[in-house]
Amino acid sequence: MTSPRLVALGLFLLLLAAWEAAVPALGFSNLVLPAPSVIGVALWRGLATGYLWPHIAQTLLELGLGLGLGVLLGFAGGVLLGESPVLRRVLMPYVVTSQVVPKLALVPLFIVWFGFGTTPTVVITALICFFPLLENTLTGIAQTDPARLELFRMLGATRSQTLWRLRVPAGLPAILAGLRVAVVLALVGAVVGEFIGASKGLGALIIAAQGSMDTPLMFAVLLVITVIGLLLYEATLLLERRLLRAYT
């Protein structure tokens, strides 16, 4: 039987070949739509000369800090709201309000508050990936089997023991699903945050390439962002499998 991964790879190569053939056939210039070979040359040149590496490092720094902060606050907030119905009724409208405001519209405000550089991008990244983890943690904790909760009460377990030994492990699939979403959104937040007020990073490099009409470089940067996102997602899946194996 053919592996789905091989089928996906074959489809990808087929699409690349069709793209490579279509560009000269349709008369597109590199400014409008460069061929994959042209994009590959731009990517190789950027990596070989070291031009891309500082931008990649900056985006990874902002991504790591923003994701870490957002995940920490999201998980802690989900546990807190899941354990306290009163707090959930009081604070949940404010949490939802923080998410319905367009994040790109907040970037100029964060620049006024925090200045240019890394901090505004970290804040916007944390704000974007905060809600999925909070919502999934809250949902996972709330869906604990009532029969198992009653068993813990009969055994005299404290509220803390019930939380960390029953509620959180039982809600782990939902929590980790929120983490997968948060990882993807964190990369989006880091790149979007760099569009405004950043001089370094992959998002800032896209804006610079757009200003210089360097379309192959723009596509090369988008390819780098895509690879980073896929690697992060695969790392999250690996973490999920190990944690679920440990707690099941």
Task: Please give a structural write-up.
The protein is globular. Helix 3 (53-83) runs parallel beside helix 6 and helix 3 (53-83) packs across helix 9. It has helices spanning 4-26, 36-48, 53-83, 85-100, 103-114, 118-142, 146-154, 159-170, 172-195, 202-211, 215-246. The protein is an all-alpha fold and 248 residues long. Helices cover 83% and strands 0% of the residues.
Describe what is shown at a glance:
This protein has 248 residues and is mostly helical. It contains eleven helices and no strands. It has helices at residues 4-26, 36-48, 53-83, 85-100, 103-114, 118-142, 146-154, 159-170, 172-195, 202-211, 215-246.
Characterize the largest beta sheet: strand count, sense, and whether it forms a barrel.
none
Straight-line N-to-C gap: 31 Å
Low-confidence stretches: none
Which percent range fits the helix content?
Answer: over 70%
Rg for CA atoms = 22 Å
Mean pLDDT across all residues, rounded? Answer: 85
Quickly count the helices.
11
Topology:
Elements: H1 4-26, H2 36-48, H3 53-83, H4 85-100, H5 103-114, H6 118-142, H7 146-154, H8 159-170, H9 172-195, H10 202-211, H11 215-246
Helix pairs in contact: 2-11, 3-4, 3-6, 3-9, 3-10, 5-6, 6-8, 6-9, 9-10, 9-11, 10-11
Quick tags:
248 residues; mainly alpha; 11 helices; 0% strand
